[in-house]
UniProtKB/TrEMBL annotation:
Cell location: Cell membrane
Listed PANTHER family: MEMBRANE TRANSPORTER PROTEIN YDHB-RELATED, TRANSMEMBRANE PROTEIN YFCA
Keyword annotations: Cell membrane, Membrane, Transmembrane, Transmembrane helix, Transport
Gene source species: Streptomyces endophyticus
Main location: membrane
UniProt similarity note: Belongs to the 4-toluene sulfonate uptake permease (TSUP) (TC 2.A.102) family.
Membrane topology, as annotated: Multi-pass membrane protein
Record-annotated membrane-spanning stretches: 51-68, 80-97, 103-120, 207-228, 235-253
Name of the molecule in the record: Probable membrane transporter protein
């Protein structure tokens, strides 16, 4: 693997472990793949890392949809998609002009702010037991989170934590959270592929590395599926928020 992006066997091992974390995050603790994002960005050139990671994420999304496809809340998805599309376009423009440092800084700040807002809201009121209803407030919140999610997922594949904060703040329970998130990211990440190709982030060389790494997503997803039923709702939410904060700090400090 040394000829692909000039990485060593040890670096490939780290990327393989990060690919396993992607699988785990997609079927257990959404947002944990911010750790994978940091590993890929540390080993590969920052912009190139987003192109390599995207197909790995899509592999994880497919496995998550196969596992939780019946638990999605589609009204929430339809409210999010228009705003996410706008965010993806903004992110594409931003990528065309911003340097790697600006990208990492902006995403890190957004993740930390989202985690803080979610913690504050959860202290103000307990999460509702029912799934969200299509009120004006819900549409406004979906729009703001959707634009942020589209922007962050386009520029750094970091939309997971933003969407995690939205779904937690909307009161989703574990299976509904995972099912809605699975379908959301399969559709959004697949839609990002043409933009990434157009920006030169995905090419034959990146896909060759993806082919070698994709197999490691599967055991991570299997481990995540085995663990998720053993994680209670409160711990699940704490892990999601902790993963978001960790990912934001990693982006700011790297």
């Amino acid at each position: 693997m040394h000829d692909i992006f000039g990485i060593s066997p040890w670096e490939f091992s780290a990327l393989a472990a990060a690919a396993m974390v992607v699988g785990f995050s997609k079927t257990a603790v959404s947002g944990a793949n911010t750790v994978s994002l940091a590993v890929f960005a540390a080993i590969l050139p920052a912009r190139a890392s987003t192109g390599v990671l995207l197909p790995i994420l899509i592999c994880g999304d497919i496995l998550a949809v196969l596992t939780y496809r019946r638990h999605a809340h589609w009204p929430t998805l339809w409210r999010l998609f228009p705003a996410v599309g706008a965010g993806v376009v903004l992110g594409t423009v931003f990528l065309g002009f911003a340097g790697d440092g600006a990208v990492r800084m902006s995403i890190g700040v957004i993740l930390l702010v989202m985690a803080g807002v979610t913690l504050w809201r959860r202290k103000q009121a307990a999460a509702a037991d029912a799934e969200p209803t299509p009120t004006r407030a819900a549409r406004v919140k979906a729009g703001s989170y959707g634009v942020l999610g589209g922007f962050t997922t386009m520029v750094a594949n970091a939309g997971g934590p933003v969407m995690s904060m939205y779904l937690l703040s909307a009161g989703f329970k574990k299976l509904g959270f995972l099912g809605t998130s699975a379908w959301f990211f399969l559709i959004v990440n697949s839609a990002k592929v043409p933009f990434s190709v157009g920006l030169g982030l995905i090419d034959g060389r990146s896909l060759l590395l993806d082919a070698a790494l994709a197999v490691f997503v599967v055991p991570g997803a299997i481990i995540g599926r085995a663990c998720v039923n053993r994680i209670n709702q409160r711990l699940f939410e704490q892990l999601v928020i902790a993963a978001t904060v960790l990912g934001g700090l990693q982006l700011l400090l790297n």
